[in-house]
Amino acid sequence: MDNNQNPQDGNINIELNEMVAAGVYANLALVNHSPSEFILDFIQLMPGVQQAKVRSRVILAPLHAKRVLNALQQNIASYEQQFGEIKEVEPFVLGQNTPQA
Measuring CA to CA, which residue among 21, 34, 32 is closest to residue 43? Predict the structure, then answer.
């Protein structure tokens, strides 16, 4: 994106520093909500270890949560069209089984 563009044009500049760009690994997500927000906890669960760590928490307004849902649905459909169906091995129940990598 051109740095000369301004928000009045409907464009924004997004900064992504190196630490955030590296990302965090999560193999479990928990979602909770209140009347005013959705809370997404991204967790790293190691096989055979009873203690799991929340690696990142994202808090969203309901409208933004719905936009994230729509973006994920579109991206999953695109992914599956290109690479094939994503198959779930078995339902995951917290505390009863370990997610497969």
Answer: 32
Q: Does any domain span residue 2?
A: no
Residue 42, domain extent? 23-81
For residue 90, tell me if it sits in a domain: no
Number of compact structural domains in the chain: 1
Q: How far apart are CA 28 and CA 92, in angstroms?
A: 9
Measured CA distances, 81 to 2, 40, 62, 85, 88 (Å): 32, 27, 29, 8, 17
pTM exceeds 0.85 for this model: no
Task: Tell me the per-residue pLDDT of 82-100, one tens digit each, with 9 for 90 and over.
Answer: 999 999 887 666 555 554 4
